[in-house]
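Please check both lines for our workbook:

___
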Amino acid sequence: MLNADAGGGDRLALAVLAQYRMATTEQMHLIIAPGVRIEQTRRRLAKLRDEGLVDRITLPQAGRTRVWFATQYGVQVASEWPELRDWQPSKLVADRTAARLRVGHALVVTETGLAFLQDARRRGDVCRPLDWIPEVYHPLGSGEAVIPDALMYYRSGSAEADSWSMLRAFVEVDRATMGPERLAAKIHAYARLHEYVPVSVGRPRPAFGQEPPQEDWRRRYPVFPRLLFVLDGTGPDGIETRIQALRATTRNLGLAGFLREVPVLAAPLVDLLRNGPSAPVWRPVQDPDQRVGWMESPVPVATAHPPAQSPRPRPARPHSWGDHSRP
């Protein structure tokens, strides 16, 4: 009898390496097959390497850790699969020198994704390996773009009980390689993406009664993903400096509309790894004294001067940041 699942584990391993860019042997094991012995994962990776689909580099430190990545051939094979429809391969993903130079950041991004995957498994939520998608390109026009370190899809709750929400998040992993101001400037980039409407040359203005063009992100997401900053590469004082820089940026009046609609949270990676991402380790950048889980909605910051005219009340929604579908 034909085994329809033959090669399924190999396919998942190659898809993860192609999409994640790089991962250690241990990370791969915990991502794709945590329920079996790690020797099986080692044999699978060795087999894929013999077939020319993946390759590895060896780090000189940390016990000569092996780091795996997809070869150009592996990238070509994986790019044909429907499960990688949201994935765009890096031009240098299969280059050994490029892999060595970007390994530090890539492995921290993989470690962050693994933290969310493991937390979802513990909670009974759904966040599968390919629901963590690094470097998704979002154009801003004029050749500019927002490219988050990762886009995450996450289903919280029980589908059987019809009490679940589909969540999305842009994740920025900061290893303190840029100044706090440059990190904080990323909030402005996401605010631009939130407002960006593509303009076609020669397109006539909408006629009276016609719907105006919509923001480009609405083609992909029913709700704009929340923005999560994961901070690493520095001690507690450095973490605090970076969070205060993020907070200072939120005082810009031009960001008010974006920040009303999109939760922006920051947390140290060490806290995510120790307590899990769903724990109250996240600090809303507008009010860093709060501690919330990433799926929670932060308490709005009180305004010193209420508006002269109160806006028309809208029906309350329990999860204004989630929905029941993945596009």
